[in-house]
Amino acid sequence: MYRDGARKSIWQEEIRRFSSEADLHQFYDVAVVGGGITGISTALKLQQAGKRCILLEAANIGFGTTGGTTAHLNDFFDTTFNQAISDFGQDHAQLFADTGQEAISIIENNIQQYGINCDFQRKTAYLFALDEKQEKQLTDIVEGAAKVGHTMNYVDEIPFPIPFKKAVTIPDQAQFHPIKYIKGLCEAFLSLGGVIQEDCRCEGHDEQENHVSLETSKGEIKAKNVVYATHIPPGLSILHITNAPYRSYAIAFSLKSGNYPKDLGYDLIDPYHYYRTQEIDGQTLLIAGGEDHKTGHEEDTGECFSRLENYVRKYFDVETAYYSWSSQYYEPTDGFPYIGKLPGSSGRIFTATGFRGNGMIFGTISSQILSDLIVTGNSKYENIFNPSRIKPIAGFADFVKENAVVAYDFIKDKLFAEKINSLAEVKDGEAKVVKYEGESYALYKETNGKVHLVKSTCPHAKCEVRWNSAELSWDCPCHGSRFNVNGKLLTGPTVRDLPRVDTDSENQ
Ligand SMILES: Cc1cc2nc3c(=O)[nH]c(=O)nc-3n(C[C@H](O)[C@H](O)[C@H](O)COP(=O)(O)OP(=O)(O)OC[C@H]3O[C@@H](n4cnc5c(N)ncnc54)[C@H](O)[C@@H]3O)c2cc1C
User: Ranges for the Rieske domain (predicted)?
Assistant: First the structure.
């Protein structure tokens, strides 16, 4: 398996193993945990700066969201600039706005310096309103962009066959192939003497005065500094309250007419749809994304694909859906990412998360911020993205309440499980959390009747997992940990599997 889901993403074919036999007994300058765009970009920057780095990945490079992204590179974000100005003030909103082109430049420089062939292309983006409410939103977005010096121009036509009310173009955006890109970064990192260790899960850390000791599935690893590029680091921290896991869905289609839009597109529906194209094996495909929801809060995740496909078919002359996949991102409570010193750390451990749908940009800018913090001790972004900040903006209480649903979800799921009295109620091909002899279990029955039974309580914060029919996984609605049908961990923050239960019915 190369990705944290049962479905194949359009990028996955390019994933390859980087299984160096690392010397884990060396004392490293920096151990970077997480082999997605954030971890790899950061490890490379630090290695370039003369640090001796090791990159640790629980599965394989590209296993996480970077293998399931859609890889638009934008300098306008899910958090609008007017929102940023009203919550953080003009100066901080300006810095926030500057990260977009700075990150795209870092990507372009890496591509040029290391000769990475990753289908990078500069693109124009079209942002379009479909009704009056969205028109108002679009006006607000354009006004906010002007205040931070970003150009958005009203246009009468868009290259997407979707009826719209108002639209703007945004110049100088881009797209690339995310796995080809991070593969190129890994090769550059290795060529500079960096070390990659895959199949190495980091389970915890002990921060000492002069170093950090990492507890990993391959034993103890010591480094002067540690960077967690794993979304939320292992263990419990304030980041669990200030970030919430969401899933988003993508499908890659061929079109009968062959008339593919050349640019990037976004409507303003909540959640919004996003569009780009990608050539794979000589064939152009339209990638459409959307249908986002909080992890574990959608009864039938397969429905999300149906809704997305039906929506796209309404407007485009779809021929075939070649790939469909979903993946997970984190929403921050106040709209800004959390990049910097890990809350509670005395200064040797760093983290980067809360990227919303803009993780290609914030993952890349993290490499600059974190290497500046480690190498020089400061960064111009240090204060605005400080992971320890608690910013009680409008909606904060609701967000925290919604996110602190540990107890609520636990009780609700227990009640739900109470209603199910026996395993017999689960049909072939179905999955449920069931009550069996007084205990709660996550049960999946294959279409041939084979039963997979695991304990249903997530080891992280004791929430009850929920079934994700689209990716055949058990997802924790509280903090986003995910497990396969055998209870094997797919996505943290937990570092433990769901205990598997041997039953007589298992081999039925
Ligand atoms: C469907 C979808 C579409 C998106 N589209 C866009 C887009 O168009 N543009 C954009 O800018 N952003 C987009 N995003 C967001 C973006 O893809 C992500 O924010 C970004 O990929 C996150 O990268 P990362 O390196 O931080 O995390 P990941 O890529 O998830 O990497 C984290 C890695 O850490 C590893 N790991 C976790 N825990 C441990 C541990 N304890 N020990 C060792 N390793 C561990 C995981 O296995 C994983 O490989 C999208 C997100 C989704 C879900």
Answer: 418-508
Q: Indicate which residue's Cα is closest to atom 48 of ligand 1.
A: 64
- Span from the CA of 107 to the centroid of ligand 1 (angstroms): 16
Residue 255: both structure tokens together: 């079109």
- Quote the ligand 1 centre to 34 CA distance (angstroms): 9
Ligand 1: atom nearest CA of 495 is 41
What pLDDT does residue 404 have?
58
For range 341-357, the mean pLDDT? 97
What atom in ligand 1 is closest to the CA of residue 326?
1
Note whether residue 294 is domain-resident: no
Identify whether 146 is part of a domain.
Answer: no
What is Dmax (Cα atoms) for the chain?
A: 66
Task: Pick the closest to residue 275 from 311, 242, 235 (CA basis).
Answer: 311
Q: What is the pLDDT of residue 428?
A: 81
pLDDT of the residue at 402: 63
pLDDT-above-70 percentage for the chain: 91
Nearest CA to ligand 1 atom 51: 69
CB neighbours (10 Å) of residue 318?
A: 17
Quote the number of domains for the chain: 1
The DSSP-derived string for 215-266 is EETTEEEEEEEEEE-SSSPSS--THHHHEEEEEEEEEEEEESS-----SEEE
**For ligand 1, is residue 63 a contact (CB within 6 Å)?**
yes
Query: Residue with the nearest Cα to atom 41 of ligand 1?
Result: 202
Residue 178 CA: nearest ligand 1 atom is 21
Cα–ligand 1 centroid distance for 394 (angstroms): 27
- Tens-place pLDDT, residues 103-151: 999 999 999 999 999 999 999 999 999 999 999 999 999 999 999 999 9
- Within a domain: residue 39? no
CATH number for the domain including 436?
2.102.10.10
Determine the pLDDT at residue 101: 98
Please check whether residue 451 lies inside any domain of the structure.
yes
